Amino acid sequence: MASCGLAYAQERVTVTALRNAVEKSYRKMIAGMDRFDKRHALAPAASLRFKLLPRHRDTKMEDIRLEIVGESFTLPVEVAPDHTFTLQRDQRALKEDASVRPNRKAATMTWRSEIRTPGLPPNTRRLGDLRLECEVGMEAGLVSNNATFLFRWLAGGPQYCQRTSPEPLYLFFAERPVFSVALVSGARREVLSVDNLYAAASRNPDWRAELPYCDCEVLVDRAYTLPLGDRSWPDDTLVEFEYMDDAN
Question: Under DSSP, is residue 71 helix (H, G, I), strand (E, B) or coil?
Fold first, then answer.
């Protein structure tokens, strides 16, 4: 993902800030960046970006404006066409406990980190990259589930991503609706259970009623979880996707 960063043009907060907006803590997102630096060995060839994702089918993802909003200033952040961005470190934003705020209302979008090793085969991700995505996402507070939703694990911090039993329920989102997901390391190949797909809908009879409280609401057919803490799968393990439209 190409580097973006901040443009340091100052504007009045009262003009640019949207009330009841989707927003995240700048301090927490910087803490996520620190986590990436600390644990970069999980994905040594990758860089970090953040990504905006829709929560509703009618969420407009075009022409998103993103700003760091402090008490006395705003700083625009460039959003790439793939809805990803980076943050620069700004002492004023840290001091004023600024927020990172797009021009979209609360509960219309969610956030993730995106860490991708270049040069991977088509329709694959690297497990170490995804392990680090989880740790950064938890440190930065990116998941936008309602607190009453069943995923109350959000207080677990990045260590949550390392546990083995039960497996972390951190939701990743594939590029397209998935039919199956497999782990491949050398001669070892394992297709994940359907319980790892679609936000574990197969083991939750009330999943449709709870879906509005999950930030996977419009992305449930792309959602999957992984055995992130199982170190028998090395970081170079490939995560292979078979998509619903592959046979078309």
Answer: coil
pLDDT band at 133 (very low <50, low <70, confident <90, very high): very high
| CA distance linking residue 221 with residue 55, whole number of Å | 13
Q: Where are the beta strands (DSSP E) in the chain?
A: 24-25, 47-54, 66-69, 74-77, 84-85, 99-102, 109-116, 124-126, 172-173, 178-185, 188-191, 223-224, 238-243
DSSP 181-238: EEEEETTEEEEPPGGGBGGGGGG-TTHHHHGGGSTTTTTGGGEE---TT-TTS-TT-E
Distance CA 223, CA 113 (A): 15
Distance between CA atoms of 137 and 64, rounded to whole angstroms?
Answer: 21
The predicted-structure confidence for 33-55, as pLDDT tens digits, reads as follows 999 999 999 999 999 999 999 99
Residues with Cβ < 8 Å from 229, sequence gap 6 or more?
A: 161, 162, 163, 164, 167, 168
Bond preceding residue 166 cis, omega within 30 of 0: yes
pLDDT score, position 150: 44
Q: How far apart are the first and last CA of the chain?
A: 29
How many whole angstroms separate alpha carbon 185 and alpha carbon 126? 10
Torsion angle defined by CA atoms of residues 89, 74, 136 and 170, in that order, rounded to the nearest 10 degrees? 180
pLDDT tens digits, one per residue of 53-82:
999 889 999 999 999 999 999 999 999 999
Q: Is the pTM of this model over 0.85?
A: yes
